Amino acid sequence: MASAEQPARDEENYDDEPDETLSERFIGLTEMLPGPVRTAACTVADTSVKTCKGLFSFSRNAAWIFFTTSIIMFAPIVFETERATMEELHKSQQKQVLLGPSSAMASTPSGPTPHLPLVR
Questions:
Q1: Whole-angstrom Cα distance, residue 18 to residue 94?
Q2: 120 and 95 in contact (C-beta within 8 Å)?
Q3: How far apart are CA 86 and CA 77, in angstroms?
Q4: Which DSSP string corresponds to 60-112?
Q5: How many CB atoms lie within 10 A of CB 91?
């Protein structure tokens, strides 16, 4: 009968212990370490957090500057290229309307022109 009572007592003792939170465990661990070690650990942790925040802020600002500058610099080139392409297509269509389809095909060495509706 003593063997049956022993596991019950262990379970009761286990259930009677209050649950610790993670912060309570850290506080208990800090009490085991000497003061200079705690101070050094806090300094390292604070410096690491500040460094990570600073690097994140710098990378965010650098990315913003890079992408806005590239858009401002390359957008006019893209627009101008598109405008030149549209002018070339317009000239090709005008030539096709005035001289017929054979003359427009002969003047473009890069290949056949796309079939677009006539501009009036």
A1: 89
A2: no
A3: 14
A4: HHHHHHHHHHHHHHHHHHHHHHHHHHHHHHHHHHHHHHHH-HHHHHHH-TT-P
A5: 12
Per-residue tokens: 34 = 């000497």
- CB-CB contact of 30 with 38 (8 Å): yes
**Residue 19, token pair as written in the block:** 């649950």
The span from the CA of 2 to the CA of 11, in Å, is: 15
pLDDT digits 0-9 by tens, 73-114: 999 999 999 999 999 999 988 888 888 766 555 555 555 555
In whole angstroms, how far apart are CA 99 and each of 9, 16, 42, 94? 107, 101, 84, 8
Residues 66, 58 contacting (CB under 8 angstroms): no
Based on its alpha-carbon atoms, the radius of gyration of the chain, rounded to whole angstroms, reads 39
The domain spans of the chain are 35-99
> 14 pLDDT band (50/70/90 cuts)?
low
Name the one residue in this structure whose structure tokens are 């080139």. 77
pTM, rounded to two decimals:
0.46
